[in-house]
Amino acid sequence: MMRKLTPAVLLFALATLAVAGPAMDAGGAKQATNWHAIIMFLIFVAMTMGITYWAASRTKTTADFYTAGGGITGFQNGLAIAGDYMSAATLLGLTAMTYTQGYDGYIYMLAFFAGWPIILFLMAERLRNLGRFTFADITSYRLDQGKVRTMAAISSLVVVVFYLIAQMVGAGQLIKLLFGLDYNVAIFVVGILMMVYVTLGGMVATTWVQIIKACMLLFGGTLTLLLAYAQFGFSLTDLLQKAEAVHKLGPKLMAPGSLLADPVTAISLGLGLMFGTAGLPHILMRFFTVGNAKEARKSVLYASGFVGFFFNVIFLMGLCAIIIVGQSPDFFEGGEVGKKLIGGGNMVAMHLAKAVGGNMLLGFLAAVAFATILAVVSGLALAGASAISHDIYARVIRKGQATEKEEIRISRFATIGLGMLAIVLGIAFEKMNIAFMVGLAFGVAAAANFPVLILSMYWKGLTTRGAMWGGYGGVISAVLFVLFSKSVWVDVLGNKAALFPYTQPALFAMPIAFFLAYIFSKSDTGARAKAEKEAFEDQYVRAQTGFGAAGAARH
User: Fold this and answer.
1) Per-residue pLDDT tens for 376-415?
2) Which of 67, 100, 342, 483 is 20 to 30 A (C-alpha) from 135?
3) Partners of 30 in beta bridges
4) Which residues lie closer than 8 Å to 356 by C-beta, 6 or more apart?
């Protein structure tokens, strides 16, 4: 089947790109097809299909499908985690934010980065020692398996769907602009390729696609920066002086601005980005692909280095673009410098690549950006599929009696279902702001997944009833706060006034989740609750050593 399907998908991609017509730019003019980007994209697709072909032969068990058999090294996993984290919103959205808002873009990046120490010092070792395939393995370790796994799977799927929307919309807009494809066709290409990677190659293919993509992204971003930075003699002082001289913010360019104008929203956003990192299912799942807790810690250390380096690269890219792109007549419409960029402000990184490296570098970075989206979507789909197959089907419906072949088959069906859903949502939310959707995904993850996960690791008093109230309370309140905010209630649904005055849910939904988990655990005095609290000792020993109490004594 694999031998037949891989060429078929490649032929589909080739045919789709062959009939690609000139896309419409923001001003309604025809935009020429970027053949450099298309050729590089096809090279990437062919390369990753080869990886998928190889991975399919190695994917025989559930451990292979979900966690690549635990055979990924700390360095490889660090690159893959960085690849998961460095999404299109990072490359496109944060560069554009720096271009328009200056130092506020860097504050946004710091909030994203602040989640890594939490994972490194509080979670990495325990995640690896307690979990097997999904983070629900940890939250349900000493609690009611059926109830807690169902809750964790639902909250994971909610986060996955929010993140999928952002990535699919980003893919459609990018390909519409640079490859000459229609938006809907681009969405179908991403969805179909993602389904092939995950259903056939599982975590092995997804991991290596992420590693290759991360290397390409780091190389492409660094090369673009070096070519741009060279125009200022590699002098940060010279760059900042020139940027402040031409930017509308002037001397305020490097001072905190609009992001901190509303402190409540700023704090809520910061909490969401910081703790949401520790609640993203596709990030947490990566800790089960390494062999031991030491490699898990290495994974976070390497990922932190790669992500931190790249954040600084794109911040400097944004500053360079203020001068190189903002004042170039080649990159604006209607004679208004630096405002009406072709393709909108989110394409600043692409315009900078073309300005400093021509169509070749633009094509490479465009293909990398598309590969970024494709790889992140694959990781999200695998996380969502594992929640359905491993947590709901194998552990709740079949109560641990499902065979490995059954579980893998359900995972593949779930991946196809999620792929189809991603295509539909990507088309439906075409006009939605990408950065806003990513922020919401982090905010929901911070309220839905993080509180119960961290309490299950560190608090002896957590019971099934407390976990259920905390988990459902966090995800429902976060989703409702988003629904009732101006961004959805007014801007999308067309109501006159928002029912909730802020756009970010974490500051309000996270305390609700912690409070409900605490109150309902404390008030739970039944025999089951007592046994769950007593079982914490064995969980604690396993979290520290990788063995249960008896096993630790033997070792």
Assistant:
1) 777 788 788 888 888 888 888 887 777 878 878 888 888 8
2) 483
3) 24
4) 224, 227, 228, 231, 324
Question: Collapsing DSSP states into helix, strand and coil, what is residue 434?
Answer: helix
**Contact between 113 and 311 (Cβ < 8 Å):** yes
Yes or no: say if 106 and 254 are a contact pair by the CB < 8 Å rule: no
Q: What's the DSSP call for residue 235?
A: -
For 8-39, give the DSSP string.
HHHHHHHHHHHT--PEE-TTS-EE---HHHHH
CB 203 within 8 A of CB 382: yes
Neighbours of 262 (CB within 10 A): 15
The first and second tokens of residue 289, run together, are: 């692909």
Tens of pLDDT along 221-272? 999 999 999 999 999 999 989 888 888 888 888 887 776 667 888 888 888 8
- Distance from C-alpha of 322 to C-alpha of 315, rounded to nearest angstrom: 11
Helix (H, G, I), strand (E, B) or coil at 416: helix
pLDDT for 201 = 67
Q: Is 398 exposed, middle or buried (0-12, 13-18, 19+ CB in 10 A)?
A: middle
pLDDT in tens, 217-231: 899 999 999 999 999
Phi then psi for residue 220, to 5 deg, are -65, -45
d(CA 279, CA 445) in angstroms, rounded, equals 5
What residues are paired with 308 via a beta bridge?
A: none
Amino acid at 59: T
Distance CA 171, CA 425 (A): 12
pLDDT digits (tens, 9 = 90+) for 343-363: 445 678 888 988 898 888 888
31: which strand partners? 23
Place of tokens 């009406």: 340
Give the domains, in start order, of the chain with CATH numbers: 2-427 (1.20.1730.10), 447-550 (no CATH)
Q: One-letter amino acid identity for 285?
A: M
- Between CA 242 and CA 112 the distance in angstroms is 28
Q: Give Cβ neighbours of residue 445 (< 8 Å, ≥ 6 apart).
A: 159, 272, 275, 276, 277, 279, 280, 281
Q: What is the pLDDT of residue 468?
A: 92
Stretches where the chain sits below pLDDT 70 are 1-34, 69, 88-89, 131, 177-180, 197, 201, 259-261, 327-346, 431-436, 540-555
In Å, how far from its chain's centre is CA 361? Answer: 25
Closest CA to 421 of 163, 155, 153: 163
Dump the DSSP string for 476-494.
HHHHHHHHTSIIIIITTT-
For position 476, what pLDDT does the model report?
Answer: 93
Round to whole Å and give the CA distance between 288 and 124: 10
